[in-house]
From TrEMBL:
<dbReference type="Pfam" id="PF00830">
    <property type="entry name" value="Ribosomal_L28"/>
</dbReference>
<dbReference type="GO" id="GO:0005840">
    <property type="term" value="C:ribosome"/>
</dbReference>
<protein>
    <recommendedName>
        <fullName>Large ribosomal subunit protein bL28</fullName>
    </recommendedName>
</protein>
<dbReference type="InterPro" id="IPR034704">
    <property type="entry name" value="Ribosomal_bL28/bL31-like_sf"/>
</dbReference>
<keyword id="KW-0689">Ribosomal protein</keyword>
<dbReference type="GO" id="GO:0003735">
    <property type="term" value="F:structural constituent of ribosome"/>
</dbReference>
<comment type="similarity">
    <text>Belongs to the bacterial ribosomal protein bL28 family.</text>
</comment>
<keyword id="KW-0687">Ribonucleoprotein</keyword>
<dbReference type="GO" id="GO:0006412">
    <property type="term" value="P:translation"/>
</dbReference>
<dbReference type="InterPro" id="IPR037147">
    <property type="entry name" value="Ribosomal_bL28_sf"/>
</dbReference>
<dbReference type="GO" id="GO:1990904">
    <property type="term" value="C:ribonucleoprotein complex"/>
</dbReference>
<dbReference type="InterPro" id="IPR001383">
    <property type="entry name" value="Ribosomal_bL28_bact-type"/>
</dbReference>
<dbReference type="InterPro" id="IPR026569">
    <property type="entry name" value="Ribosomal_bL28"/>
</dbReference>
Length: 79
């Protein structure tokens, strides 16, 4: 499975390693992802999601129901 946040769509970015001699080689900046279980009281079930830590902060701030609703509106979640 790819390393993409299921709520925000964040994924790896591409950049350069730069040495002291300013030689550049390609590298990847991976997304900071965490696999986490959430309880959704409206549906009375547990859901496991792979989310970025910034999405986790949004869940703590707004609540899981509001964040899932936004993700569905933005097309990141099905159903």
């Amino acid at each position: 499975m790819s390393r993409v946040c299921e709520l925000t769509g964040k994924k790896a970015m591409v950049g350069n390693n730069v040495s002291h001699a300013l030689n550049r080689t390609k590298r990847k900046f991976g997304a900071n992802l965490v696999k986490k279980r959430f309880y959704i009281p409206e549906e009375d079930k547990w859901v496991t999601l792979k989310v970025s830590t910034s999405a986790l902060k949004n869940i703590n701030k707004k609540g899981i129901s509001a964040v899932l609703k936004e993700a569905r509106a933005n097309g990141f979640l099905k159903k």
